[in-house]
From TrEMBL:
Residues 662-689 are annotated as: Disordered. It holds the Pfam family PD40. Residues 574-689 form the OmpA-like domain. Keywords: Cell outer membrane, Membrane. This is WD40 repeat protein.
C-alpha cells in the first residue's frame, strides 16, 4: 500500500500488543476492584464463571490472532454480562470499539475510562488510545493531556517520545485551525465507495470519468499479512443525470497481483499515471486510447524513479515538468516533493533532469498526493507536517514568480484529525475530490467531493510551531510502565555571520551507553530545534548544517533533575579561524587518557575530516588554574595529543593535524567558581586552513 504505514510496522505493533497483553494479565490479581475469572470470586456461580471465561478467551483469539474486532466484541459482550469488572476484558472492549471497521469512539473512550477506574495501576496502559480517541473527535485538550501522560513514560523508546510530542502539537494546531480555511460542502460519493479502502480519485477535465484505487473484494491478489486485498485501479463514469456508476476494474494488464494505484492523468488526458509496489514503489505511465482503453504501464526512467519509494506525481500543462514525491536521500525527511524538467540530450532523445527538492513545501515528516492545477500556479498536496491537525492534511501553495509560497492548511472544513489525502481539483477549482478516513462513510478510506460555497476564511495560524522534527511511525498499541522526569532542550540555530535561521540536524547519543537516542531537525524558517530526553543521563548533541562547522553540545544533570535548556547557537562557516569547543571530550581524572564517553565527539571529528579532505585543524587542550602552570601546560598538551593520536589511528593523515596545549593561559570563564573551572577544562578544534 502506498500510504500510511508498512505492513511490517503494523505487524510489529500488533506483536508488541499481543505480548504486552499477556504480560499484563499476570499482575491483574493484585488489583482489589478487579474480578478475575476464578472460582473464589464466583461462589455458587461456577457455571457463569466458566461461560464468561470461555467467551473472554474466544474473544481474545478473534482479536489477537485474526484482528477480527467485530467477532471479538460479540464474545467480550457475553463475558461482560458475567463479569463487568474484569479490567483486561473492559480494556479490550475499548480497543475493539476503537479499531473495528466503523469505530465507535465514544464507546471506546467510555471503556478505556472504565478500565482506568477498575485498576489505577492499569491506567497508564490506555493513555495513547484514549488520547487518540479524543483526538479523532476533535477534543483537543483531553487528547493533549493524555498524549503528554503517554510520552512522559518512556525512557528508552525515542519514537514514543517523538510521537507524543507530535500529537500534542497537532492538538494545538487543531485549536488554531478551527474555523479557518475554505467554506465547503462535503459530499460522500457513495456509489464509488465500498466497505474497504477507496482512495486517490483522479478525474478528467469534464468530470465525466473518475479513476480510483480500491482494496475491495473484486481486487486482484490478497495480502495475507493485513487481511485485505491489494490495491487495484477502478474506473467510474458519470451518467447524464450526474450520478456516478459503480466502478469497474481496469484490465489484467494494469492490475497485477501486487499494489497498483492511480495517481494522476496527463493534461492531454492521453496518459494515466500509476504507482506500483515494484522496486519499493515506482511511477508508471499508461497510454489511454481514444476508446478509453488503458494500455500496459511502462516504468518512468531514472532519475524520476530510484531504488527508493516514489508514490505520487503530477505534470504541468505542457507535460515538460513533473512534480512527484519520493523518500530518496538528501531531502528533509520521509517523503518529500521533488520536481524534474524534461530536456533533449545531444542525440535529440528526451530525458529528465536531476530532480530538485522543493524545500519550502517539505518538512521532516511525509508529503504525498501532489496535484498541480492546469495553469501550473497552484500545487495541492497532503502533509503530516506544517500545521497538520492530525495525520495527513491537505495544503496548497501558490507560485509567485519562480518561487512557491509557504503552504496553507485548507482548514477544518476538509481536514480531520485522521488522514485526508490524494486530491484532484476541478478545472474551475470549485470542487476538490479527495479521500478521507474520518468523515464517516462505508468504512476505511472513502472518496469525497468538497464543493466550494464561499470565500476563504482567514487562517489564524499558518506556520508550524517549533517542535521536535523527526519521522515517526504510527503506533497501534503501546503500554506504559512508569512516570519519568524529562529534560527539555530548545535552541535557535543561526548562522553566526548573517544571523539567519539554519536547517540543521541534531544527533543525540547517550555518552555512557553510546546508544543513539534520536535524530532531530530544526525548522528551516525559524531555526528552532527542540527535543526531550530522560534527566538521568549524559548526552552528546551534535548539530550539523550544510557548509558549517559542526557544534558539540552536552546535556547532563548531576543530580538527575529535569533540566530546561533554552539557548541560541551560532554556527560558523567552514573557514580559516573558525573554532568550536568539543563539549563531549572527556578524560580520566588528572590524566590524558580518553574516556569511553568521548566516542561521540571523536567520531564527529573523523566524519568531519573525511567530509572535508582539504581542511587542516588544530586540536588545543586547556585547563583551569588549579596546580602549577608547567603541569597544566603539559597535561593540556598530552590531552590534545591523545585526540590526535586517536584520529591518526583511524586513518586521518597526521599532516592535517596540529597539537597545542595552552594550560590555563586562555580561560573562558572565572576560575573562582567550580562551574567556571569546569568550563575552562576543555578541548577545542580550530580550522587552520
Amino acid at each position: 500500500m502506498r500510504i500510511l504505514y508498512t505492513t511490517k510496522t503494523l505487524n510489529i505493533a500488533f506483536y508488541i500488543f499481543a505480548l504486552t497483553l499477556f504480560s499484563m494479565s499476570q499482575s491483574y490479581g493484585q488489583e482489589k476492584e478487579h474480578t478475575p475469572f476464578e472460582a473464589t470470586y464466583f461462589k455458587g456461580k461456577t457455571d457463569k464463571m466458566k461461560k464468561g471465561r470461555k467467551s473472554f478467551q474466544l474473544g481474545k483469539q478473534y482479536m489477537e490472532l485474526d484482528r477480527n474486532y467485530k467477532e471479538a466484541l460479540k464474545e467480550f459482550k457475553k463475558a461482560e454480562r458475567y463479569n463487568p469488572t474484569h479490567n483486561e476484558l473492559i480494556y479490550k472492549m475499548g480497543v475493539c470499539y476503537f479499531y473495528q471497521k466503523k469505530p465507535d469512539l465514544k464507546l471506546a473512550i467510555e471503556y478505556f475510562n472504565k478500565a482506568k477506574q477498575i485498576s489505577p495501576l492499569f491506567s497508564s496502559n490506555v493513555h495513547y488510545l484514549l488520547a487518540r480517541a479524543h483526538h479523532l473527535q476533535k477534543e483537543w485538550d483531553e487528547a493533549s493531556t493524555s498524549y503528554q501522560l503517554y510520552g512522559a513514560s518512556f525512557a528508552d523508546s525515542t519514537e514514543q517520545w517523538l510521537l507524543a510530542q507530535k500529537r500534542v502539537e497537532e492538538c494545538h494546531n487543531g485549536k488554531m485551525v478551527a474555523g479557518t480555511g475554505l467554506r465547503l460542502k462535503i459530499e460522500n460519493i457513495a456509489r464509488v465507495n465500498s466497505s474497504s479502502d477507496d482512495i486517490g480519485p483522479v478525474i478528467n477535465r469534464k468530470e465525466t470519468r473518475m479513476y480510483i484505487t480500491s482494496r475491495r473484494d473484486k481486487s486482484t491478489g490478497y495480502d495475507t499479512q493485513d487481511g485485505q486485498y491489494y490495491e487495484d485501479i477502478f474506473v467510474s463514469k458519470k451518467s447524464r443525470s450526474g450520478d456516478w456508476y459503480s466502478p469497474k476494474p481496469l484490465g489484467a494488464n494494469v492490475n497485477t497481483k501486487g499494489h497498483d494505484a492511480v495517481i494522476g492523468i496527463s493534461p492531454s488526458e492521453k496518459t494515466l499515471m500509476i504507482y506500483r509496489g515494484d522496486n519499493n514503489g515506482d511511477i508508471f505511465l499508461s497510454r489511454i486510447t481514444k476508446k478509453g482503453e488503458v494500455k500496459t504501464p511502462e516504468r518512468m526512467p531514472s532519475p524520476v524513479n530510484t531504488d527508493f519509494r516514489e508514490t505520487s506525481a503530477s505534470f504541468t500543462g505542457t507535460g515538460q515538468v513533473i512534480f512527484f514525491t519520493s523518500d530518496r536521500p538528501n531531502g528533509k525527511g520521509g517523503l518529500d516533493i521533488w520536481s524534474s524538467k524534461q530536456f533533449r540530450n545531444k542525440k535529440g532523445k528526451r530525458e529528465w533532469k536531476e530532480p530538485v527538492n522543493l524545500e519550502i513545501l517539505n518538512t521532516p515528516y511525509d508529503e504525498d498526493g501532489v496535484f498541480l492545477t492546469r495553469d501550473g500556479k497552484t500545487l495541492y498536496f497532503s502533509s503530516k507536517g506544517h500545521n497538520s491537525i492530525g495525520g495527513y492534511d491537505i495544503f496548497k501553495s501558490e507560485k509567485k514568480g519562480n518561487k512557491w509560497t509557504k503552504p496553507i492548511n485548507l482548514g477544518d472544513g476538509i481536514n480531520t484529525p485522521d488522514d485526508d489525502i490524494f486530491i484532484s481539483v476541478s478545472e474551475d477549482e470549485k470542487r476538490i475530490y479527495f479521500s478521507s478516513k474520518n468523515m464517516g462513510g462505508k468504512g476505511g478510506f472513502d472518496i469525497f467531493v468538497a464543493h466550494l460555497i464561499g470565500e476563504e476564511r482567514i487562517p489564524q495560524f499558518t506556520q508550524e510551531a517549533p517542535l521536535v522534527a523527526s519521522i515517526t511511525p504510527e503506533i497501534d498499541h503501546q503500554f506504559l510502565v512508569a512516570d519519568l522526569n524529562l529534560s527539555s532542550y530548545h535552541a535557535k540555530i543561526l548562522d553566526k555571520d548573517s544571523k539567519k535561521p539554519l536547517f540543521a540536524k541534531a544527533t543525540v547519543i547517550n555518552n555512557n551507553s553510546q546508544e543513539k537516542i534520536g535524530i532531530f531537525y530544526s525548522d528551516d524558517l525559524t531555526g528552532d530545534l527542540a527535543f526531550t530526553a530522560p534527566s538521568e543521563g549524559n548526552y552528546s548533541i551534535t548539530i550539523e548544517a550544510a557548509d558549517h562547522l559542526f557544534v558539540s553540545e552536552n546535556l547532563y544533570s548531576e543530580q538527575g533533575k529535569a533540566l530546561v535548556i533554552n539557548k541560541e547557537i551560532l554556527m560558523q562557516p567552514i573557514s580559516k579561524g573558525s573554532q568550536i569547543i568539543l563539549n563531549n571530550m572527556f578524560y580520566e581524572s588528572s590524566s590524558a587518557t580518553l574516556s569511553a564517553s568521548s566516542k561521540a565527539d571523536l567520531n564527529n571529528l573523523i566524519s568531519f575530516l573525511r567530509e572535508n579532505p582539504s581542511v587542516r585543524i588544530e586540536i588545543a587542550g586547556h585547563t583551569d588554574n588549579v596546580g602549577s602552570k608547567t603541569k597544566n601546560e603539559i597535561l593540556s598538551h598530552q590531552r590534545a595529543k591523545s585526540v590526535v593520536d586517536y584520529l591518526v589511528k583511524n586513518k586521518v593523515d597526521r599532516r592535517r593535524l596540529k597539537v597545542n596545549g595552552y594550560g590555563d593561559t586562555k580561560p573562558i570563564a572565572s576560575n573562582e567558581t567550580e562551574e567556571g573551572r569546569r568550563q575552562n577544562r576543555r578541548t577545542e578544534l580550530r580550522i587552520i586552513n
